[in-house]
């Protein structure tokens, strides 16, 4: 699976992180369906991770591929 990671450019200390899970209802979209990660998060001191997940019908819902 894929993810996009955005962080402040010159951070020297540990930072809080936000994991964005796109709202595709297990059927639509991918990790790119997110707000502007730099503008809304990285510029304010957050590490931002936008994740991808397997979609139906190619993958059975709550089957082994979802775990």
Automatic annotation (TrEMBL):
Coiled-coil parts of chain: none
GO molecular function: hydrolase activity
Listed PROSITE patterns: LIPASE_GDXG_HIS
UniProt key word Hydrolase: yes
Keywords noted in UniProt: Hydrolase
InterPro entries: AB_hydrolase_fold, BD-FAE-like_dom, Lipase_GDXG_HIS_AS
Pfam families in the record: BD-FAE
Domain of life from the UniProt record: Bacteria
Residue span, BD-FAE-like domain: 3-60
TM helices/strands, residue ranges: none
Keyword Hydrolase in record: yes
Family of this protein: Belongs to the 'GDXG' lipolytic enzyme family.
Protein name per UniProt: Alpha/beta hydrolase fold domain-containing protein
């Amino acid at each position: 699976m894929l993810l996009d990671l955005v962080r402040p450019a010159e951070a020297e200390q540990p930072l809080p992180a936000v994991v964005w899970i796109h709202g595709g209802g297990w059927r639509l979209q991918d990790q790119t369906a997110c707000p502007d990660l730099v503008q809304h998060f990285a510029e304010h001191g957050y590490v931002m991770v936008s994740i991808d997940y397997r979609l139906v019908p190619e993958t059975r819902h709550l089957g082994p591929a979802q775990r």
